[in-house]
User: Fold these one by one.
Assistant:
Number 1:
Amino acid sequence: MHANFSPATQQVLIALGERSYAIAIGAGLLGDPAAYRNLPSASTALIVSNGTVAPLYAQPLQRALQAHYQRVLLLTLPDGEMHKDWPTLQLIFDALLANACDRKTVLFALGGGVVGDMTGFAAACYMRGVPFVQVPTTLLAQVDSSVGGKTGINHPLGKNMVGAFYQPQRVICDLDVLKTLPPRELSAGLAEIIKYGPIADMAFFGWIEANIEALLAREPVALAYAIGRSCEIKAAVVGQDERESGLRAILNFGHTFGHAIESGLGYGQWHHGEGVGCGMVMAAHLSQRLGLVDAAFVSRLRTLVQRAGLPVTGPKLSPVDNAGRYLELMRVDKKAEAGEIRFVVIDGPGSAALRSAPDALVREVIDACCG
């Protein structure tokens, strides 16, 4: 079931059999009723957003959805990673139940990764599953978190530890919403774009190096290409390994170190993309120490991460044993098995693998990369 988009709209298909869906990328999509054609029919739609995004984009989305639904409800959640938790998730269930929403109700996630992850998780759980649509409003959500069906919330002891794999019906990436994105959020999204180069496509990495200024200046042609290519790579990986039994783990390049930084500092101190940017530099250093890449590759990645406006030096998480604290946090990572931390490493530019590394080696990396 696909809408008929304008010729200027790119479509990337996530091929998952009966759970397949399209990612639409283009300008002016959010407020266009045509973008929401051919979704599961229902009488009610619930838009879930946050206090930052709703004032900007809830009204045009509501108007567009009124062409398809009798009732279009809006729920505004508090904004920020620190609210990606049980009490905030309950607010979505409260709204659904208070409005007597049935199992055909369609949820629309209007916001960044936090809103998308929580709305998707609520959709997976409410009446054991209702349809939902991703309308990501950050660059990071457009190229990563809105695609592939990972949903969930954080637990005080670990990031994204409670959740479900649950695919959306469609992803609507409107390039125009990126105009209102704060510069720090734009840089955070660039981290997830840069990620796709070392793990899958070094030609794309070279393109990012050549076009990083255009991306930072939000040039629509550059953004459209970067978002489209990122979604293509992610779609190919998710199509082969939807539930992360193997290959899909490579999409977590930089995330093991990055999640440790996020939870170690307290959610919301560093943006997710900032943790990933710094984490990729640390993971590249680890790859070099394992003899998989050379120093020139590490330097090239570090330079690009820095040019994107992202941190390349990790924070101190403990005044006593910084590396020990990192290791402790990383053992709670979802990729850890039997207490053994597994890292996404680059086993040659454009190719990634999941492997463990001796604690002593990881300590060296942390000591070298954190100030």
Note: The chain has a mean pLDDT of 96.
Number 2:
Amino acid sequence: MLERKPGSEFPGLVDRFVTYAKVHTTSSENSDTYPSTARQFDLAHILVDELKAIGLADAAVDEHCYVTASLPASKGCEKVPVIAFISHMDTYPEVSGENVVPTFHENYRGGDIELPKNGRRILAAENAYLQECIGETIITADGTTLLGADDKAGIAEIMEALTRIRENPDWVHGPLKVVFTPDEEVGAGVKHFDVAKFGAKVAYTMDGGRRGEIEDETFCADSAIVTFVGRDIHPGYAKDKMIPSVKVAGAFLASLPREGAPETTEGKQGYIHPISIKGNTSETEVTLLIRDFDLDGLKPKAEKIREHAVKACDQWPGATFRLEVKEYYRNMKYDLQKEPRAMDYALEAVKRAGLKPVRGSIRGGTDGSTLSARGLPTPNVFTGEQDFHGYGEWICVKDMELATETILRIIEVWTEKER
């Protein structure tokens, strides 16, 4: 294990995390700029300065808010494939990420965790993983914001690993790269990222949950837009003539079964999820998410949407609809199978960090889904973040330390096996 040197000039893992968590970086779904919010550059500039301070001289941020840096290989390790570590700077837009107050709960004894403000608490009954953190330090927000461990814990862990390498120059390693991205939470994290120019063989997103878990599966994802077309007539003269598309859309939504919705599914079960509706009497547009771990499971769900749209129009003679299905991302397992070392070496690294490796799947997507499809195999590694996207987000300091150690072990395994 690479230890921090006493009297180091650099801040520690937890100090870094607290600093990053306090920077307001919330992204926005209602923006036509990239990144979606200029405030994400605030953290980007901090990270560039820190990367340069620990010896990554080429650290820079570009016009798209991508922070990149590289660490050359140790002498004799130049032929080791380039590996990269990635985390995102933005936080979830639907819960405030401004004025975050990281709050420490030391020597956690079990039970619910009271947050200082707004009467909120983290319920032990809904967070079974808390039992594995008894006796440890838990970090939460104060009840007025999310914490931002998703994904500032990942950033802090990457920075800490690089710092330890910098402080231990005799520790050999292959060539390394890091990337900190914007707008992951709004599905655009790597929209402008040039994989070929970046030049890594394999990457790892540091954006997972419980200790020891490496995720190599995501949903296959499409979106469906159903546009119902009615007939608008002055309401004073509408009898037997008007076809209100809003009501047709309402009939469609009411007909969708609860079975196969997000609120009734778990594990490897897919779902159909209506997320927005907008329109008027003439036309109303309904947007739905389609998710399945199996690529072959997407088309039947799209057909089910079509069937329910037909039935809704049948209830309103004269109504019609248009259905557009858009590809979003695919299960990254299909691409990771082409480069088995990405997972094999990561699982070995978890063992070397003293943990039981768990091969997991994500009921969602990551930047790694898109990167893997573009030719950069990118599994997802645990950071410790828990119950993210809400006021009850929390993280165990021990997990952050274990994630940092796992990064170092991943580098170690790649170097040993490919040198």
Note: The mean pLDDT is 95.
Number 3:
Amino acid sequence: MAYFLRRVVYAVPILFGVNLLTFWLFFMVNTPDDLARMHLGLRQQKHVSSEAIQQWKISHGYDLPVFVNPRQTGVHELTDTLFVKKSLAMFELNFGAADDGRDIATEIHQRMVPSLMIAVPAFLLSLWVDLSLALLLVWFRNAWQDRLGVGLATLLMSISSLFFIIGGQFLLAREWRWMPVSGFDPGWDGWRFVLLPVMVSILAGIGRGTRWYRSVFLEEIGKDYVRTARSTGISEVRILVKHVLRNGMIPVLTTTVSVIPLLFMGSLLTESFFGIPGLGAYVVDALQEEDFAVVRSMVFIGSVLYVLGLMLTDIAYSAADPRVRLA
């Protein structure tokens, strides 16, 4: 519990710093006047007057002072500001409205389900497949099976994920008609639409994951405790599964940290090509429409999830190796 509380205390200033940096990038580098001028200029295709800029700022809530509001008194002098209303409010999951008027929190709540339907199975199955293949290659280490597996993994690493997306859509969906090319169904029939994206995600990452885990397990299998266990007559399969896999969990846990935000945020490329109305496609649409209210919210959510992922990884470290708790 003490270890967990220390990690929580460490995370608080980090989250505040991420929030402050996000605010600075979106409101100090690109000021509200710049946002108004950009949006109004795209719509009107002409010079934008200062009155139109001020009206746009008022309608979108960007007319407040940045950090201190001299028009207010008391605590409202600090709370009735752009920083509190647009930045600190995100800690309460109050993301405001997009430029088209839709509530961002409602859109996130609706779109996170399709993203999770793809990301969670893809993550779990990829981890299981990569670990299994890595252990299999270590079992056949220095044999032709190992060399062939490493060669195939390197080949898969060299191929862009876009190739697997287009190839899967053409072969499995268009030619063989095993599954839909794109789209999504929120009902029970929705598994047909997520099956191909999940398969593509697994295949696109199988080479990188297998090679990485193989190198981790090869380093473990050469240590003294493995030779001691082997000398006592323990089978090679039990050594790989019970000893090598368990002692190699810290590097495995480290690689999963970067995946945690994607479990919620979705995949930009996959969701765009397969027409999945998830959070990844939401970010792409916001970038195309230059809706920085949505982009700012998604950047903040991704940052928070990454920090929380680091906390969960530290806790998992302590479970895998009790010596970490002393750090």
Note: The chain is about 75% helix and 0% strand.
